[in-house]
Design brief:
Elements: H1 5-26, H2 40-67, H3 70-102, H4 110-132, H5 135-162, H6 170-178, H7 182-222
Helix pairs in contact: 1-7, 2-3, 2-5, 2-7, 3-4, 3-7, 4-5
Length: about 220
């Protein structure tokens, strides 16, 4: 399983490097935002990855809880740390992006609220597992946090897509326009692929640790 990890890391570095070169050097400056808009090449892939991982956590938690598949519960434990990191990066880069554009580290914009809600859900998963203690109870706690949290994630996605955001005007228009640029799209896709490959590598490493930890716990529990 870990044989592919070096290849995943290599692919992640290659795709991210290609995407950053395109995004930071080849994509033209925006007339209103200037260089600030280039943070989108970090912010959006991190947000996408955090959302994808959360949905995978909820799926695996549901399979583990209702179908009794033990391996699915292990996947939830392996996925959460990486998802939490990307949720934090998404919120942090959103604040960095917003400060020079809107003059504040925080505004009640639907996108920022969505990023904050996602990070809080990940924190809830981590805390719930830590407080539950025993792996079986911890897996159950994670499932009952993750599954209702899916509704929150879907609701925030809908709100971002359909509801007007607080800071309207040139910033939103220019971001939308840049998304139509071939180089900008290529840069975003390349970084997103790199982030995905990195996440796969980290989750596999973490999954191996989870398997070994649970095997040790089982051995200790069955030892005379």
């Amino acid at each position: 399983m870990l044989d592919v990890v070096p290849w995943l890391f290599s692919g992640a570095v290659a795709f991210c490097a290609f995407g950053f070169l395109l995004g930071f050097l080849a994509v033209p400056l925006q007339a209103w935002q200037g260089d600030v808009h280039r943070i989108v090449y970090i912010h959006l892939p991190a947000t996408w990855m955090a959302l994808l991982i959360y949905l995978l956590v909820a799926l695996a938690a549901g399979i583990g809880e209702f179908l009794g598949v033990r391996a699915a519960a292990m996947w939830t434990e392996a996925l959460v740390p990486t998802g939490a990191v990307f949720a934090f990066v998404a919120l942090w880069t959103g604040s960095l992006w917003g400060k020079p554009i809107w003059g504040s580290w925080w505004v009640w914009d639907a996108r920022w609220v969505a990023d904050l809600a996602l990070l809080l859900l990940y924190i809830g998963l981590v805390v719930g597992r830590a407080l539950a203690g025993e792996p079986g109870r911890a897996d159950r706690a994670v499932a009952w946090i993750a599954l209702p949290g899916t509704a929150v994630v879907l609701a925030t996605l809908v709100s971002v897509a359909l509801l007007p955001t607080t800071p309207t005007g040139p910033a939103d228009t220019l971001v939308a326009a840049s998304a139509k640029d071939v180089l900008a799209v290529a840069a975003l896709v390349a970084v997103a692929v790199g982030v995905f490959l990195y996440s796969c590598a980290m989750v596999l490493i973490r999954l191996r640790c989870v398997i070994l930890e649970r095997a040790q716990d089982t051995d200790r529990a069955t030892a005379p």
